[in-house]
Specification:
Strand order of the largest sheet: 2-3-4-1-5-7-6
Distance between the termini: 30 Å
Radius of gyration: 15 Å
Strand content: 15-25%
CATH architecture: 3-Layer(aba) Sandwich
Number of helices: 7
Number of domains: 1
CATH topology: Rossmann fold
Largest sheet: 7 strands, mixed
Shape: globular
């Protein structure tokens, strides 16, 4: 589907969020903070502007990986991922997407081999642009709305409290291990250990 592989990039690991300081500590930007952690953990600078994203190439668990933070705003995340996937000839099954999840408690993780967008605009855009739901994803809980009347857009764009940020940060290493398992082709193990 994505043509002959024309690079040594084995996997794309994309964290979803919105660009700009205004959104820095919002619930919707958890994907970006995870990429920042992986960047430091693996010594990969994520600064280059390419594929409508901030990105960097390095090694994660023996695989050559492109870390990606789309700069297209959440609901156009697929534009960035599709551009990078086609450029490097990476199949969707080797694209790991990290996003926020408002149906999970703070810091709770859910790994999936594939699946629908579940109401997440970033995942919806990726599915539309890649023409498939078959890519692994790691969803990070950012807490449910405090009450049903609260607007969902306002909730995901609200800032995490310092305590909530700490609770999510405690799971960064688990997310790193989940990424490593997926790279090894052990998605079931990642699901067992994280879900």
């Amino acid at each position: 589907m994505f043509g002959r592989k024309k690079s040594n990039i084995d996997f794309i690991v994309a964290g979803l969020g919105n660009p700009g300081d205004k959104y820095k500590n919002t619930r919707h930007n958890v994907g970006f903070t995870v990429i920042d952690y992986l960047s430091g953990r693996c010594g990969i600078e994520v600064k280059k502007l390419k594929h409508y994203a901030k990105c960097g190439i390095g090694t994660v668990n023996g695989a050559k990986v492109l870390l990606l933070k789309p700069q297209t705003f959440m609901n156009e995340s697929g534009v960035s991922l599709n551009d990078a996937a086609r450029y490097y000839g990476v199949e969707p099954s080797n694209i790991i997407v990290i996003s926020d999840d408002v149906s999970l408690d703070i810091g709770k993780l859910r790994v999936r081999r594939s699946g629908s967008a579940g109401g997440h605009n970033g995942l919806k855009s990726i599915i539309e642009h890649l023409h498939t739901e078959d890519f692994p994803r790691i969803r990070v809980g950012v807490g449910e709305k405090p009450n049903p009347q609260y607007d969902l857009a306002d909730w995901v764009l609200s800032s995490l409290t310092p305590k909530e940020r700490g609770q999510i940060a405690e799971r960064y290493e688990n997310i790193y291990h989940a990424v490593c398992y997926i790279i090894e082709g052990k998605v079931d193990k990642a699901m067992q250990e994280c879900n």
